[in-house]
Amino acid sequence: MSRKVALLIGVSEYGEGIPSLTAPPNDVEAMKRVLENPEMGGFEVETLLNPDPTPMRKKIKKLFTSCGKGDLVLLFFSGHGITDDENKLYLATRITAKDDFDATAVPASFVQKQSKNSYTRRQVIILDCCYSGAFAEGWQAKSIGVDLKKELGAEGRVVLTSSTATQTSFQHEDEELSLYTQYLLEGIETGAADKDEDGKIHAHELHEYAKVKVQEVKPKQKPGIIIDREGFNILLSQAPVDDPELKFRKLVEKSVGSKGEISLYRRETLKIKQQEFNLTNEKADEIINSVLEPFRRHFFNLEQYKENYRKQVNQKYPLNNTLVQDLKDWGQQVLGLEDEDLEQIEQDINLEKKGETQHQQEAQRQKPKEYQQGKKAEKLKWDKEKRLRQQQQENTPSQPQTRKAGIFSLSKVRLTVFSGTTFLVFAVIFSAFLLNSKPSSVPQDTIPTPPSDNKSLPVQSSQNPTIATPSKPTLVSAVTGVDYGRLRTLLETVKWKEADQETTRTMLQAVGREQEGWLRTEDINKFSCEDLRIIDQLWRESSREKFGFSVQKDIYQNLEGTKSMNVRGFNFGATVGWSTASEYNDLIFALNAPKGQLPSVGGWSGLGKEWQENGYTSRGAYGYIFSLIQRTVTCKA
Predict the structure, then answer these.
(1) Among residues of the chain, what percentage have pLDDT more than 90?
(2) Residues 276 and 213 in one domain
(3) How far is residue 191's CA from residue 162's CA, in Å, rounded to a whole number?
(4) Burial of residue 493, with CB atoms counted within 10 A of its CB: 0-12 exposed, 13-18 middle, 19 or more buried
(5) 231's torsion region: left (phi>0), alpha (psi -120 to 50) or beta?
(6) Of 275, 308, 337, which residue sits at a domain end?
């Protein structure tokens, strides 16, 4: 009876000059669990962690020489791969150091020799390792041209590699498994690698599944396969048949767009299929998030590069060529981003910074001119007031002189009464006029008119009479003093984008964080309930209950089936349409937007910065949503 035998080697510790890795032991343990499972791989498995060169060679030799003609042999290696000046590949061991790797590592040619001496014709070799670029500057160039087919290829053998000869394939520091191994395991455990749905997972099917998933996360990383006619049909694992979870997963994969989005209509269709397959909300969410995870990680890598590039540009602009190349190498080798992605991000940020710099330079040029204009206008105003005061003093007699003149005039009028009755009527009228007049040292037209107590009544001109229109009362928070009148006006005039930005501004003002430009968790937890209700009510009333914090709260709480803040937040982002927008301007600022898409302060206006810096999610909005939802519940909004 034929056997299926596997040797799994993981190396995480190395000698001087070679960085350690965290994933290899986890890769070996996870691969062992899957391959040993009789319902999946059904292999006899032996593991080897952090070996020295000699024990590693002995185990590899024993693997190939102890198997018969009908047996299936599988060799798995997770760790560093190194190339020499002649582009020969070496598998690093526990004592391998940068300066003596050729004496302390296991050459690929040794693996090839043992493979050729084996009786079995069915062999699978899986290498999840980097071939270069892990060490000092200049080593990467030495890896160009490694001929893996010449090094390891042979009849009846299939070789699966996590990257090309010139690429690294390190795991992220915060990831449990290496990227390629993670999706090899996922393809077997879920059965998703069984593309032809015959209940069997062959080597080429498994590799193709893992390759697609890896490139959804890191488009630059290109897993390879060396295969011949006999190796093409090597059966590695069984897959479930007519399994409802697998059927639902494949429907989800067909529903996902090129950017990782699932339209509202497809989500409704998936909801119906979920019921047909009798899946719980928790299980359906788990499958959907598993399918969307590569896209989320890719988006996170894009955001990482964008953030770091912008940080460097803000420190010094323009960037020198050396720093630009360093950033590009990091984006390609570590984040796995393609040149087009990097160039687009760089172009956008450079244009943004260029415009900002030009604006600042123009402001500096205008400043002296505006200063001189201001001083000149101030002097003209002062001179005008001075001339007006002088004119008033020249034309107005003093108060004692005015009184004396008045008495004298009145006496003369009274004397005329006795001169004859002809002037009696005139004298009486003129005397009354003088007695009722109020002499003053200030001309009448310069006396200010006291302001009206009723501020709502407009001043009407006798020449252009108008009808007074009562204005709406100001909308000011009694707790923070923030005026929400402009927000109300923007919402009433259906200016959704401006209202979204005004919401961010008022929230920052309410907690005194205008200068920082983002809210901390403690700010959200202490945010005034009155202000929260005002903002929410204005949004709900203007959008006919489609937008608002309480609307977002209801959507978030209805996402049942998972307790993970990251996963639940990601589901929320997909539901309200945040996940399908790569930039703020991609949001739909209209009533036909998905319910709950606005206000978007957490996802797009910087209020999720604290969560983003802590690396919880790609967009930083999901942690913010969690905090704001809790505050909305507390405030009963």
Answers:
(1) 30
(2) no
(3) 20
(4) exposed
(5) alpha
(6) 337
